[in-house]
Amino acid sequence: xxxxxxxxxxxxxxxxxxxxxxxxxxxxxxxxxxxxxxxxxxxxxxxxxxxxxxxxxxxxxxxxxxxxxxxxxxxxxxxxxxxxxxxxxxxxxxxxxxxxxxxxxxxxxxxxxxxxxxxxxxxxxxxxxxxxxxxxxxxxxxxxxxxxxxxxxxxxxxxxxxxxxxxxxxxxxxxxxxxxxxxxxxxxxxxxxxxxxxxxxxxxxxxxxxxxxxxxxxxxxxxxxxxxxxxxxxxxxxxxxxxxxxxxxxxxxxxxxxxxx
Amino acid sequence: xxxxxxxxxxxxxxxxxxxxxxxxxxxxxxxxxxxxxxxxxxxxxxxxxxxxxxxxxxxxxxxxxxxxxxxxxxxxxxxxxxxxxxxxxxxxxxxxxxxxxxxxxxxxxxxxxxxxxxxxxxxxxxxxxxxxxxxxxxxxxxxxxxxxxxxxxxxxxxxxxxxxxxxxxxxxxxxxxxxxxxxxxxxxxxxxxxxxxxxxxxxxxxxxxxxxxxxxxxxxxxxxxxxxxxxxxxxxxxxxxxxxxxxxxxxxxxxxxxxxx
Lengths: 261, 261
Hints:
Two copies of one chain form a homodimer.
Chain A: E1 11-18, H1 20-24, H2 31-42, E2 44-52, H3 56-69, E3 72-76, H4 87-95, E4 99-101, H5 103-115, H6 122-125, E5 129-131, E6 135-137, E7 146-149, E8 152-155, H7 159-169, E9 180-186, H8 190-203, E10 207-215, E11 220-228, H9 231-252
Parallel strand pairs in A: 1-2, 1-3, 3-8
Antiparallel strand pairs in A: 4-5, 6-7, 7-8, 9-11, 10-11
């Protein structure tokens, strides 16, 4: 999609999901899809996602690549109290700052454990570790805060906590012009519509038209998604797509032929 | 996890999932988790996953980074017939070879459309495009083949097709020593076990012990996963973990205290 003249309104993001369990398949990630939905609604363009292991070098390298390139980077995972939770150290290393027990986080957590009449052990204190100078991301679910340093937002991996944290973060971000979209069901397979659709895309360069094949075991159909930042631009392209489908209906002289990609 | 002396048996992989719809949230990826499961069973270490848009530069850059670093790279998405399916072109560019209509793929597809009494249109012919010199990955679901060039395996995005293609690919790969794992349920939160678990990890360096918090709305517990390539090494570490939990039980004098990270 070519950029509209208001290119300065494009706000981009990347996500870095951290965790051996994501790469082994033991945990099926839910945070990526959730974040993608929210960012789309917020007018922020998620451009890249990476999943890496709980390994310092891997996290540092990926983080430094992503934070230089996109407006915002969101990370999930590795901020719990156990020995395999190394995200705070890795992020500190990426920024070249000390990783410290943040005093306010220590207070928050100490107060919580006191209320629950439990010991604030050395292990639990690990959850207060963050890069020196980082600010908290509140955690209304389980208290231990995430943190933000420059354009990097570091959050938990547990989906319930990740979602609560991102809900707190989103209102603080600058957002770009929102991508509007319209989904149009098409009873024809991609093979039937490809050339016509390509012509529509060319004629409407400020849109991005996606084509997603569906197969119900017998018949191919397609979901067409037209995206644009401008409502009039979107409408024009959507009408062209609807007209294309109507033309195909007339040409085939039946409303829902069995077609195949 | 430190490498065992048979370091040459470590076979690594990366996955590159391609598709605007994955980044917008419209499609929730299912292929990453599926591939992760299969590779773990096969003894291949998935080390990194990236999700990028249907944009040539993004695909080329990610592919070139990943294929230089890991034994195998698996891609999903973008090999259909429509204008937004640009993976074949991007992979060709990454390798610096022409993107051609592969003759054997053309034959396969032509025969299929002939059987179905449908026209083998220019759009449908796009599905035969691949880098010059690539070999086919068979597609028993919908005929249009994926392809492999050097260590890069390019497959469909539609989960049904991706799964069928990877089933055909896996038996052809070299596999490393398989990672064995054992999951141990732990009724205590991460905060209770962190120091002890860290000590066990240190004492068993040829294992990787993961700790995954669970929260049922009231109580925290933890799933502990011990991984190793050697069964005896795994057994020793697992026994240490079981003993740790038993010690905690005795210390707290009740089998399932309410604990919190």
